[in-house]
Design a protein that fits this description.
mainly beta; nine-stranded antiparallel beta sheet; four-stranded antiparallel beta sheet
Length: 204
């Protein structure tokens, strides 16, 4: 799917196969879709450019009540700017090769062991069961928590987490979750650039 077509799908409210969907070789930049939205809190949708200048371009914001996309919430100037940027920087469709990361299981991400510990905390009648998510890596001296990955977790629903490597070599972690609680529901989609999972090895 061409970048402009992917953006049109997002405007329609469709879900892309993967949050990261377009790559620009000239700008060495990856384009990923992010979203934070709920019935009670409204929310926003953005395109996150990872690499190059790196920025979030918010194209939709909703302050009111409800989950349905409100046509009035779209920023047409931002959408026009995104279309122009996709053309100017020769963005092309990009699918990557996501490596799924399952809760309480390990995965090898760029040859670094990564695991996601998901621990049950308590049963809550109104808001669903509560969990704590911790993402850890083993850089050779045992498992160490990675606070920078905390946003990938979610306390009441189980997100779909994956790792992928951009053509530039940049590691990206993505997380998508739909959640519901009494009187509220929503979606969260994240794409986080990770500079390194392990500290550099000291040289003498």
């Amino acid at each position: 799917m061409a970048p402009a077509e992917a953006l049109a799908a997002l405007v329609r409210g469709d879900t892309l196969p993967s949050p990261c969907f377009a790559w620009s070789a000239s700008a060495a930049t990856l384009a990923c879709a992010t979203e934070h939205r709920s019935i009670q809190g409204g929310g926003e949708r953005a395109i996150r450019f990872i690499g190059g200048a790196g920025e979030d371009v918010i194209y939709y914001r909703q302050d009111g009540y409800g989950l349905e996309l409100d046509p009035a919430g779209f920023d047409q100037a931002a959408l026009d700017g995104l279309r122009a940027r996709f053309t100017r920087d020769d963005f092309t469709a990009w699918h990557g090769a996501p490596i799924g990361v399952a809760p309480n299981a390990g995965a090898a991400v760029t040859a670094v062991p990564l695991r996601w510990r998901r621990t049950f905390i308590e049963r809550r009648e109104e808001f669903g069961d509560a969990y704590q998510d911790v993402f850890e890596t083993d850089c050779g001296a045992g498992w160490v928590a990675q606070p920078g990955l905390a946003e990938l977790g979610f306390d009441t629903s189980t997100p779909t987490v994956a790792a992928l490597v951009a053509p530039s070599g940049q590691l990206i972690m993505t997380s998508t979750v739909a959640w519901g609680a009494e009187g509220d529901a929503g979606w969260v989609t994240e794409a986080l650039p990770i500079d390194r999972l392990c500290p550099p090895t000291p040289t003498r």
